[in-house]
Specification:
The protein is mainly α and 135 residues long. The chain has one domain. The chain contains six helices and no strands. The chain is globular.
């Protein structure tokens, strides 16, 4: 099956994936934010398939407003659900690939912390997972 994604669809995927990492970093801002962002970004850049190609594209687009965790979440969580929905409509395997890619990036970002993630990061991870599964 051939998947056709518009430029807006691709922007939604990039906003969702990169935004999930930005959301984690903002929520855990006092705990190694640069290492979290780097680990999450490396995981996203390691994606394969159509998702990997889309995430690797250099495209200018609106960046999540980093004024607050709530503002980032208001943009990123719906984008995660929208990305899953549009991929499921065209190819369940790519939807699964996207979900896995985001969750691996989230795990990679939180792994840089010593010990267990904070309750805040655990809650943000739960919200990201719920948004992925809402489609």
């Amino acid at each position: 099956m051939s998947i056709t994604l518009s430029e807006q669809d691709k922007l939604t995927l990039r906003t969702a994936a990169h935004g999930a990492i930005a959301l984690l970093v903002a929520a855990g801002a006092t705990t190694k934010p640069h290492k979290m962002a780097t680990a999450g970004s490396i995981a996203l850049s390691s994606a394969t398939g159509l998702v990997g190609h889309v995430l690797a594209e250099e495209a200018e687009g609106p960046k999540p407003d980093s004024s607050s965790v709530a503002t980032i979440a208001d943009r990123v969580l719906p984008a995660l659900t929208a990305a899953m929905s549009l991929l499921k409509q065209q190819d369940q395997a790519e939807a699964d690939n996207f979900r896995s890619t985001v969750l691996v990036a989230v795990a990679s970002a939180t792994r840089v912390l010593k010990g267990e993630p904070s309750p805040v990061l655990t809650d943000i991870t739960r919200k990201i997972t719920a948004a992925l599964d809402a489609a």
